[in-house]
Amino acid sequence: MKIGFIGCGNMATAMIAGIMDSGRYTPGEVMVSNPSEGKLIAVQKSHGIQITQDNTKVAAFAEILVLAVKPYLYEAVANEIQEVILESTVVVTIAAGVSIEKMQVQLGRPQPVVRTMPNTPALVKAGVTAVCRSQEVSDDLYQETIQMLESFGKVFELPESKMDVVPAISGSAPAYIYILIEAMADAGVRDGLPRQMAKEMAAQTVLGAAKMVLDTGIHPEELKDRVCTPGGTTIEAVLTLEKNQFRAAVQEAMKVCTKKTKELTKSS
Ligand SMILES: NC(=O)c1ccc[n+]([C@@H]2O[C@H](COP(=O)([O-])OP(=O)(O)OC[C@H]3O[C@@H](n4cnc5c(N)ncnc54)[C@H](OP(=O)(O)O)[C@@H]3O)[C@@H](O)[C@H]2O)c1
Questions:
Q1: What end-to-end distance do the CA atoms of the chain give, in Å?
Q2: How does residue 83 score in pLDDT terms, banded at 50, 70 and 90?
Q3: Domain ends where: 163, 187, 205?
Q4: 53 in ligand 1 pocket by Cβ < 6 Å?
């Protein structure tokens, strides 16, 4: 299976690391293009894959082609590759707000398209990727694409009508968690902990709490209640978070993120 990437930025680098470390693909089966050479040389050094500054070379090569450029560049890239891309090639989109229909219009034909929304923890193989497909994607190529995506994290299949909700809960969401970790670390430093230790303790606690939710299957509310000793320290902190509308702030942030994604989908 030949995998191509157009664009060699943060997401492509994370995805390439995942698929090469999975051992499913040989370096000869993966090619990436990018306008500037530095990122290409770095990724070739790390994984030995094929590199080029010519997008059409990747498009002609790939059976699964990931468009890893910024959303505003999708149309230009589609115009550039539409003459050389094979009719059977699965085009994988990773940009918020790019619908399957829009992608097919930009490519000028009913190309098989898998629309995805990954996130950057793919870099440490702890990514979340939501996926849906156009009717032109065969079952075999869809399964192959899903296995490729699973090499850097968990994959969730959704109807396309729900894809605009995903950036708020996984694509953009690592940013909110980083703010939480930074805020916890700052408070630890204020109260006398060394910076590095405060940061590691906060991050490990977020990781541990997430693992508790996933591994035990216990509702987060019950897990929270178990930490709150009557008359203890945790309930003081929890009530202060409630007073400062922690829950509401998170939900409001996700609401505006989804609103923005829907606007992008409409305008793209
Ligand atoms: N970052 C995230 O958390 C995240 C999460 C989910 C989805 N996404 C989506 O993933 C896509 C890529 O995001 P990213 O964060 O990886 O962006 P990025 O780091 O800026 O990478 C984009 C890459 O595209 C290259 N590029 C620019 N023009 C090009 C062209 N005409 N042909 C080929 N390559 C071109 C850029 O090269 P130069 O730097 O050399 O110009 C850059 O290496 C976006 O659509 C974004 O919405 C990102």
A1: 31
A2: very high
A3: 163
A4: no
